[in-house]
Input
Amino acid sequence: MRYLSLNARVIATFIAIMLPSVLSAQEVIQSELVQVSSSWARASVGTMRPTAAYLTVVNTGEQMITITGVVSEIAGRSSIHETSVSAEGVGTMKPVKEVHLSPGGTLEFKPGSYHIMLMELNEPLLEGASTSMSLMFEDGSQKLFSVPILSIGARSADAK
Output
């Protein structure tokens, strides 16, 4: 009888240790729940001055998604920033460590709001060309997307 209860304890311990691993393997990968559209970046003035990229991100899933950063092949440094305007009308821009996207939610990265800063450019961003970037997520996954480069004065993806 003691032998069976010892086996039962061993099996219960094994299940308790392994079950979280099995359940986490079934979790949805955050990057697979995201759709990226309307991406674009402003052409740069050479490589010494930073520029910005914009896009729309949609969470098609049923769980909160956390975007933790961005990687760009064209920039030595890239990060998510947010622009805000104080009650006195003074605009400020600051880096953001993460952005949360609610289930079914849409987040528009646009001028005067969230945007991707591209700094330490490896080469100039030339109007008419394109580059690629990847959003990074809390679970370690990434979403690769293409970014067409528009004019320096562009204000939206529809700019010609």
